[in-house]
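Hi! If you just cloned this repository, the fastest way to understand the data is to look at a raw example. We've pasted two of them here, unedited. The first protein comes first, obviously.
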Amino acid sequence: MGLKQAIIRTGLEALYFSGSHRWLRPFVGGVGAILTLHHVRPRRHDGFQPNRLREVTPRFLEAAIKTIRRSGIELVSLDEMHRRLSTGDFARRFACLTFDDGYRDTLRLAYPILRRHGVPFAIYIPTSFPDRLGELWWLALEAVIARKERIGLVIDDEDRRFDCRTVKEKQNLFDALYWWLRGRKTEEELRHVIRDLAARYGVELRAFCDELCMSWAEIAELAADPLVTIGAHTVNHCMLKKLGDEAARSEMRESAAVLEAALGTRPRHFCDPFGDPASAGPREFAIAGELGFKTAVTARPGVVFAEHREHLMALPRVSLDGEYQQRRFLRVLLSGAGTAVWNGFRRVDAA
């Protein structure tokens, strides 16, 4: 666990064991929460798992559903959330479950649990993933570092070499390179680096789609269930803020068009890839509204307040992070206390 995760974990523990989350809840709990998940699969025991933060176990998912309902919170669809925000119907707090990227384990492991409990949920699909053209570059980076004890990379026009023999060295290198890549000025620069790295070390970049992501037939199977909402998530899962105006608009517009052509229904909800302030901001929120989406979600941490009815294209979410698979952490997050402290008690962040 990294320093950031350790600090967050310590904060959540303090809020829970002090009872602060309970007395803060009436002031910071908002009207509901949108929860983010990616992978749902059994725990792996590999020492090097830098992307573990994007997965939870089936057991924890089921426990989370029970915890949410026992807390008096109603699990609802994105359409129902939109109705409540639009009409001011806040008689009961709500939660929405959302799954990013369309991984196959959503169908095989999460869906049976959700269907058994009658839980509505949404899946945001980057359309290049089922088209088998997508680049899950964060997984390619993990694969390169996992396989090698030393790798080379050109950074700022300088040929660099990095040792990665131990698990600790691998984790430190992954963290450094991941955030260096995220900091590239353009999306194309990031993709160029990762394509070169994958080719150099024999990692088939696009194979991850075929192995891990649902096909169009599998997505259609889920979309046929009234419990399921399919949302747009761009074509190429890129950081929209790094694209020009027309390219960003095209990523958002074309993803909706492809989903409509494949599934027969135009998606009404959108998710900004990565979703932090460096990846999506006011321009992206405005484009989502212009394209006719009812809601758009981000990765900015927070619960939903009544004030968000004026910012439906910049909705915050609460991550069900793989590092924090404990019911007590979920209770703190649902109370709004954890994200309130993180946000300095600011309710809306749409800048």
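Ok, and the second one:
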Amino acid sequence: MKSIKSLVLQIYEYFRKRWIRVHFQKFKSFNKCLSYNKMAKLSNVVPGAYKFVAAYGDANLNRRLLEMGFVPNEEIIVIESGKKKIGIMVKIRGSKIALNNKVAEKILLKRK
């Protein structure tokens, strides 16, 4: 069982590195790639309508976000962009959700 788990982790790491190499070699940085593809981190956006692209966190965070309604191409309305201590208020599927800046840093959105 342990060997299967290590094999799956090796395959995952291979494809992750390959994806990064293919997508970011042109841009030389993550931020340039985001601006080229008109994407932004939730912590950096201004109030308005966006589409959810992805969340980069551990399994627990991804599960919690999925339960709140963060699914790909779901419309998200940023009500209030956060200041340093307050966080960010978003509206998704008719519910208002407040997220702290740590979580918002791991969420990618695309301008609608």
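That's it. A detail worth noticing about the second one: The radius of gyration is 16 Å.
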